[in-house]
Write a structure and sequence with these properties.
The structure is a single chain. This protein is of the alpha/beta class. It has one domain: Alkaline Phosphatase, subunit A (3-Layer(aba) Sandwich). It is 25% helix and 13% strand. The chain is built from 13 helices and 11 strands. Strands 1, 2, 3, 6, 7, 8, 9, 10 and 11 form a 9-stranded mixed β-sheet that branches. Strands 4-5 form a two-stranded antiparallel sheet. The longest helix is centred in the N-terminal third of the chain and has 18 residues. It comes from Clathrus columnatus. Keywords: Hydrolase, Signal.
Length: 442
């Protein structure tokens, strides 16, 4: 009988074997700024330009996730070496678990909830996520998922035309790589579901200078190296990310881009992953440097918390060992990172307690957050969401939510909050800040 570690290594070898036989990288579009006919989901609206809520260090954070690669393998790629010269390489950054899904779940809500698989799981609507923290401070957000067929799609995978081979279909989209699709507080809320978008939406939002302030991006399952290898992913980055670094609508004056991997491949170094801070928010004097601060995926939660003064979730984002902040952001905000001399095991070979634990004796009820926990933001408190506005019937007729997104998902906001947003637009427009207030698209 296989041990879990043997099974993981076997899957890794199978992926390598597949990669060796796979076709070469093919750009899904003529440019990352152009919508693609290779994507089923066609965008029919553009987000409004965001009202910019200024942060201490950055005004926009974009998290791009790649897949299943050891640190040493990524570091050996000439493309990653090129990118490293333009940013900060984090040499002590770690995934949370194996396989993929717990890592994305953790980025979205500060816990893996005991998950030890890629199973289709739903997190109850009263369990808060990073979205609640952002919206509480009126910080715009979106999730862009390559090859997702419709906004808010709830299927486990989606098979679309195989543009690599020119025939047949392949499951290019995988829900397990979508941080927010697992959270009912997002996917069962019509407005929020409309902000889980595809890459055609991304192209249109980018061209309209309407990218939100906090963004998750996941390439499809070949471009992220999951079903391919680092060479394929490197070619994808040459097509997609490298040109966008020179595009001011993507990489603005105060944009932070975090390029990372969900987990390692073979597991020799406690799930050590290659993580890189890029973008104009990274001081030029730090380009080409390394930082050995112990980081995990919870860093994508605590870093915006100290930057924008957000509240916290009262889960692992308040665990000082697991939730250090990017070093240059910590220095600028006065946050003191913990020097972790004996890091916990994040290369899971045993299950851990939680509602999704596969071991019956480890299964726990859904518990509320620790309301007495200390947030990374010293003025913050633990956010508690007891009555989220969700529609449990949103997916009654299929995997796409039953709501029209033909105009603008933000129209679903309640009147009081909507009026507040408009008032703030006018305030910002009247200031010296040079962003135009958005027009509603009816």
């Amino acid at each position: 009988m296989f041990s879990l570690r043997t099974a993981v290594l076997l899957l890794a070898s199978l992926r390598v074997a597949f990669a060796a036989q796979s076709v070469a990288f093919v750009p899904p579009s003529t440019s990352p700024t152009k919508p693609s006919p290779n994507y089923v989901g066609q965008s029919n609206f553009t987000l409004p330009r965001p009202i910019i809520q200024h942060g201490i260090v950055f005004d926009q954070m974009i998290v791009v996730n790649l897949e299943n690669t050891d640190f040493s393998v990524a570091a050996s790629s000439p493309v990653f070496q090129q990118l490293a010269r333009q940013g900060i390489t984090y040499t002590n950054s770690h995934g949370l678990a194996h396989p993929s899904e717990p890592n994305y779940m953790g980025q979205g809500g500060a816990s893996t909830f005991g998950l030890f698989s890629d199973d289709f799981e739903d997190i109850p609507a009263n369990v808060s996520s990073v979205v609640d923290l952002l919206e509480e401070k009126h910080i715009s957000w979106a999730s862009y998922q390559e090859n997702m067929p419709c906004n808010g799609y709830n299927g486990k995978t989606f098979a679309s035309f195989n543009y690599l081979t020119g025939s047949g279909t392949d499951n290019f989209y995988a829900r397990k790589h979508n941080q927010l699709a697992m959270y009912n507080s997002t996917k069962l809320n019509p407005r929020r579901a409309g902000l889980m978008r595809n890459y055609n939406d991304f192209a249109n939002d980018l061209n309209a200078a309407a990218l939100p302030q906090y963004i998750f991006m996941t390439p499809n399952i070949v471009n992220d190296a999951h079903d391919t290898d680092i060479n394929f992913a490197s070619a994808y980055l040459e097509y997609f990310l490298i040109p966008l670094l020179d595009n001011p609508k993507f990489n603005g004056p105060r944009t932070l881009i975090l390029l990372t991997f969900d987990e390692d491949e073979t597991g020799p170094e406690n799930n050590l992953i290659f993580t890189l801070a890029l973008g104009n928010a990274v001081p030029k004097k730090l380009h080409g440097t390394t930082d050995n601060t112990y980081l995990t995926h919870y860093t994508v939660l605590t870093t915006p918390q100290v930057n924008w003064g957000l509240n916290c979730l009262g889960r692992q984002d308040t665990n000082k060992t697991m939730a250090n902040v990017l070093g240059f952001v910590a220095e600028a905000t006065g946050y003191k990172n913990l020097v972790v001399k004996n890091p916990p095991t994040t290369n899971d070979t045993v299950a851990i307690p939680g509602p999704f634990s596969p071991i019956a004796s480890f299964v726990t009820p859904w518990e509320g957050p620790d309301i007495h926990a200390k947030c990374a933001n010293p003025k913050g408190h633990v956010y508690v969401n007891n009555n989220p506005p969700v529609n449990p019937d949103l997916y009654n007729n299929g995997q796409c939510p039953q709501v029209a997104f033909s105009s603008n998902p933000l129209l679903e906001w309640n009147t009081e909050f909507d009026a507040q947003i408009i008032a703030e637009q006018r305030k910002f427009h009247a200031s010296s800040f040079d962003f135009e207030p958005f027009e509603r698209i009816w």
